[in-house]
Amino acid sequence: MHIKRTAIALLLAFLFACSRYGGHEPRAAAVKPDAERHEAPDFSLKDADGKTVRLSDYKGKVVLLDFWATWCGPCKIEIPWFREFQRKHKDRGFEVLGIAMDDDGWEEVKPFAARMNINYRLVLGNDATSQMYGGIEALPTTFLIDRKGKIAAAHVGLSSKKSFEDGIEQLLQDSISTATHRPVVPALIGAR
Hints:
Layout: H1 2-20, E1 27-28, E2 38-39, E3 44-46, E4 52-54, E5 62-68, H2 73-89, E6 94-100, H3 106-115, E7 121-124, H4 127-132, E8 141-145, E9 150-156, H5 161-180
Parallel strand pairs: 5-6, 6-7
Antiparallel strand pairs: 1-9, 2-9, 3-4, 5-8, 8-9
């Protein structure tokens, strides 16, 4: 009986998500060239401890910024991937930041996060934050942000794990090659 109720709840959540967010087809963008990237809008949102979190706090890191909700079926598929990415790439200057779009706030999000063993930081989103990012029309919507704070890719709807992995790896590698290919300025010896 419990399995049947769970299946019905998941089906209803999926139908609700499709009706609420237009049932858009998933779209995943490849990582844009640096010249085509735009600054990710900064925001100020609260985490589960009531601390203020700003996207600008993460400048210098590659960030996976995920707009999601507890009732979103595709979000539940991606969360284990994001946990893995957080664990695997944290030491390389990578962070996952989840923006929960649940109407019931932390009352719903905290127990869900505990059940899903979420190991990355969560904040509560709002309509203003959604509008800053072009009006989030589907959940999940996930942005890959480079170390300069620019949006390098956007994934609307459920994307493949490989698509995320490839984008993350490219952004982490890009920052290494940028650091290694900085021009060397020779010291002026004996300059007066």
